[in-house]
């Protein structure tokens, strides 16, 4: 799970618990993400950032990292892929691909697409 905690080492002059800085960081990430995917929710952004920080996660592990239910992860990942989530008319954002596992055909692993890598690079640049 991405760690958005602020420490004095991260920002000169910051004090532990300075939530204004963390909020500004998240606001910037949301703004950048919504430029590519205007309807992206905060949950979908959290899922996207978790996948970006640890590509190849099984969906079950993604549930544990984000502390979201299997249904929420399935819906969010579906909307982050190109196909969208079944049962909705929404097409996906094309930021994530689901890959099969070499050892277990039932398992799907989440990884960024080229568009997903570009978006994550933009978000990372905003924090440097």
Number of strands: 3
Q: Largest beta sheet: what is the strand line-up?
A: 1-3-2
Number of helices: 5
Poorly predicted runs of 5 or more residues? 1-8, 13-21
Q: Structural class per helix/strand content?
A: mainly alpha
Order of helices and strands: HHEHHEEH
CATH top level class name: Mainly Alpha
- Level-2 CATH architecture: Orthogonal Bundle
Question: How does the SSE layout of this entry go?
Answer:
Layout: H1 19-36, H2 42-53, E1 57-58, H3 59-66, H4 70-80, E2 96-100, E3 108-112, H5 114-126
Antiparallel strand pairs: 1-3, 2-3
Helix pairs in contact: 1-5, 2-4, 3-4
Protein name: DNA-binding MarR family transcriptional regulator
Keywords: DNA-binding
GO molecular function, one term: DNA binding
């Amino acid at each position: 799970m991405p760690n958005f905690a602020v420490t004095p080492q991260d920002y000169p002059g910051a004090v532990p618990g300075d939530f204004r800085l963390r909020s500004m960081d998240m606001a910037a990430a949301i703004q950048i993400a919504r430029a590519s995917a205007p309807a992206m929710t905060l949950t979908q952004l959290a899922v996207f950032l978790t996948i970006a920080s640890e590509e190849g996660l099984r969906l079950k592990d993604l549930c544990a990292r984000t502390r979201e239910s299997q249904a929420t992860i399935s819906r969010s990942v579906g909307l982050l892929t190109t196909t969208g989530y079944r049962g909705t008319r929404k097409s996906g954002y094309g930021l994530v691909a689901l890959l099969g596992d070499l050892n277990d055909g039932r398992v799907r692993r989440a990884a960024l697409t080229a568009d997903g890598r570009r978006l994550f690079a933009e978000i990372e640049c905003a924090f440097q």
